[in-house]
Specification:
Elements: H1 3-32, H2 36-65, H3 74-103
Helix pairs in contact: 1-2, 1-3, 2-3
Amino acid sequence: MNTEELQVVAFEIILSSGNARSLVHEAFGFMREGQYEEAKQKLEDANTELLAAHHAQTSLLQNYASGVEIKIEIIMVHAQDHLMTTMTLREVALEMLALYQKIA
């Protein structure tokens, strides 16, 4: 896999996880307003974006497992970091949604 191909995959991961992060923050806003169904929908939409990022990541893993040499660059490290922190943020948001609903 050449550098350009790797960068394309990295940016796909960054784009999708960035979209997911924005949706999670929108969900937080709905939670604060007591609009729990809207928050839930935003978190589901965020999950769809995270799945897109995960599919891009999986393609790299499949290539690697097939013997394709993949040189890791700083942009890929950033992409992975972005994806993992957004996945964690969504998990926390799901817990917060449950707590908001419990105390409402």
